[in-house]
Amino acid sequence: MGHNGFTLLVGTFRAPEIYTIVFKPSGHLNESPSLTVSKKSTAAAGHSWLALSRDKTRLYTTCWAQPPSVASYRVLEDGSAELLNQKEIRALSGYVAVTDRHLYSAGGPSGEVFLLNDEDGSIGDLVQEVSFRRAEELDDGKRDGVAHGSFGGLRHGSHSADLSPDGRSLYVADIGHNCIWTYSVDESERGRPPLAPGVKHISPRPHDGPRHTWPHPDGRVLYCVQEHSSMVDAFRVAEDGLALEHVHGYTILPEGRNVEDFWADEVRLSNKHSFNSNNNNNNDNNKHNTSQAGRRPRYLYASTRGLQPETKGYVAAYELNDDGTIAGPAVDIFETRTSGGLANAIEPAPAWVSSEQGEEELIAITDSEQGYVSILGFDGRRFREVAVTKLEGENGEVVQAATAVWL
């Protein structure tokens, strides 16, 4: 964090704009925390998902448009975004993930892998298409009459694509098939399809609806948030990076809530770490040794949304054991301002900060119902809302905040 605070980029579901937002924590002159929109960049479409390059100079997005596409942007020094290019895809994408060489997209019945151009980081040639459905399976898992619709198959198909920390595995959560697909990744030869099929892992409960996953930094645990059951689960990852073994799961909801009133959204790890002094980075037999090896996140966060406006959403925090498994039920469950609409997406800041309340982690959370972007603080015991702003159009209309990333 510099003296000007934190900068975030926020995408929307429908508006062709990317918002640059600045968060300033409370200062030494008794200033209150503030969260303000500093810039609006013209976008190719509404962007439901944002992903930054490793050096945070490029932004990659899903595009909620017809035809469906993915897009790339240059992130400028003032925090604004400048469009580089777009590439069409087969179906609406729920998620993009990037390495230095490829962009991976998944949504509904299909997914794609594109090369990234070395010159400017824009999206290059399509090198692989992936199918998660045979023709007769396109409506598998579809639920008629549910709030918010099916999003062209995204709601009952694949929804996410996450890479393992060592870049050798890809995990795709599939709501409708109630499973996690695993793929091995080999990016050693430019232009060659990098994905090879691994295993289809059926969820531990019959109506979970896996939505998003997130790996532990050592690569040996994978977390999954379940859209239909509002559970968050931990899986052990085998040495091959493909086989998953369910360990346990915990609810995101307070006691007494009906899971049928909610749809879970996101899972993320804390950036508050302990370090494993016994980790040996020179052990060639450890396939999961990466630059992140030895980091032990202290907490796991998961969020859920209300299916109707009158039902508020929640964010839950869980303490983690040293091996990455979840220590027990949620330490705290925070009720969000609104249902969350299509969002309640959470993203922890890169570092903890000190405030009058002590040291705490900052977590950005988005809301599409009323257009709120909020910063939550978590001190290891309780959440609190630190600051909030609202995205509005020129005539005061609600802008549906989707996801946020920290620069």
Write a concise synopsis of the structure shown.
This protein is mostly beta strands and 407 residues long. It has strands at residues 6-12, 17-24, 34-42, 50-52, 58-63, 69-75, 81-88, 95-98, 102-107, 110-116, 123-131, 162-163, 169-174, 179-185, 195-202, 210-215, 221-226, 231-237, 244-251, 262-269, 273-275, 295-297, 299-306, 314-319, 332-335, 346-348, 353-355, 358-366, 372-378, 383-390, 401-406. Helices cover 0% and strands 47% of the residues.
Characteristic key phrases:
407 residues; four-stranded antiparallel sheet
Structure description:
The protein has 407 residues and is mainly β. The chain contains no helices and 31 strands. It has strands spanning 6-12, 17-24, 34-42, 50-52, 58-63, 69-75, 81-88, 95-98, 102-107, 110-116, 123-131, 162-163, 169-174, 179-185, 195-202, 210-215, 221-226, 231-237, 244-251, 262-269, 273-275, 295-297, 299-306, 314-319, 332-335, 346-348, 353-355, 358-366, 372-378, 383-390, 401-406. Strands 26, 27, 28, 29 and 30 form a 5-stranded antiparallel beta sheet that branches. Strands 3-2-1-31 form a 4-stranded antiparallel beta sheet, with no helix packed on it. Strands 4-5-6-7 form a 4-stranded antiparallel beta sheet, with no helix packed on it. The chain is globular. Pfam families: Lactonase. InterPro entries: Cycloisomerase_2 (IPR050282), Lactonase_7-beta_prop (IPR019405), WD40/YVTN_repeat-like_dom_sf (IPR015943). Belongs to the cycloisomerase 2 family. GO terms for molecular function: 6-phosphogluconolactonase activity. Residues 273-284 have a biased composition (Low complexity).
